[in-house]
Amino acid sequence: MTKSDITKHFKEIEKYGGKCITFNSNKPLPTGLKDFPDHILIYKGMMLFIEVKIGKDNFKPGQLE
Predict the structure, then answer these.
(1) Cβ atoms of residues 57 and 1 within 8 Å
(2) Residue 10 burial (CB < 10 Å; 0-12/13-18/19+)?
(3) What is the pTM for the complete model shown?
(4) Measured distance CA(55)–CA(65) in Å, rounded
């Protein structure tokens, strides 16, 4: 499974009235968003911040905060 596959699964929440906001790691983020998570899922008043790691990809110290 790839990060793109995981993103596709997260996007399915939109079928049920939720929202999935994805930050592509291949594009630079605006200033001040260093170590920001890959995805934000919003559904029924809940908000989840999700960082996806696959294989040998490891957390950076700032991502663990």
Answers:
(1) no
(2) buried
(3) 0.77
(4) 21
Token pair in block for residue 10 = 């997260």
Cα–chain center distance at 59: 13
Q: Which two tokens stand for residue 53?
A: 């790691």
Tens of pLDDT, residues 6-15: 999 999 999 9
* Contact predicate 8/20, CB 8 Å: no
Contact 60, 53 (CB under 8 A): no
Whether residue 40 is predicted with pLDDT greater than 90 in this model: the reply is yes
Contact 38, 50 (CB under 8 A): yes
d(CA 13, CA 41): 8
